[in-house]
């Protein structure tokens, strides 16, 4: 839908050997040249960063490291993995963001899903953000990759960590059966709008299964037509109806789905703003969206952010974040 713009493109003058030598040099001796690392990784696409990671592994093998160690010139403890090198040199949110950039996007996403479900409690906001904004192809890739990375079943984990209507909605989304065409059936829009009205405002209590099915399976243009018809039937905007008829995590899911149907980039702009307002900053969300959307639609998200909040995204990041973490995120945003 629409002409959405990324901020990161394949680097035209890409030279993988020059990049790995520059990164190795940046990690040598006392201190680390974080600026050099940012300059390289924030200006390479994900596929090029994976090439860098693989080339580093192949170039600086263990035998060479052992020899350097014997000569007293080893710059880290005999590791040939770029991830290990950077872990030993970096720290905090900056380290987390750099490591996120060294994973393929779908691997990073499933790591975030697993993190949201590990330990005591579940971070439903992360599940909602990732699953409610995923395409059918994304869903299929996430399920396969989740098993490869974690040797666990994504659907089983989500079923085990959620309950009730939220579980049913997320399970429906995980089926990956959304219509992804651009066709609008006005008769269906009227039928769905009436079904939503009768399932919510038009009855005592709320029939969540009707809301979940329509929001999880119709294409975005179809949903926009449905929302417009809903307002003409009920006199209430669909988001207001959801606010009044639902609560908790289910309400967050429905709001995310409606906002994505209306304008996915504005949804992400809202998420970024929420991550930076109030006491403390949600750095994980900043990394997830800025890194994760950089090759999809981050430029458009920046436009939406400026339009909604009258502040450039880079300026908002600069006022809420600090140090190399700020410099990296701003560099990704360009």
From TrEMBL:
Belongs to the annexin family. It comes from the Eukaryota. It comes from Ictalurus punctatus. A pair of annexin repeats may form one binding site for calcium and phospholipid. The gene is anxa13. The keyword Calcium applies. Pfam families: Annexin. This is Annexin. The keyword Calcium applies. Keywords: Annexin, Calcium, Calcium/phospholipid-binding, Repeat. GO terms for cellular component: cytoplasm; nucleus; plasma membrane; vesicle membrane. GO terms for molecular function: calcium ion binding; calcium-dependent phospholipid binding; phosphatidylserine binding.
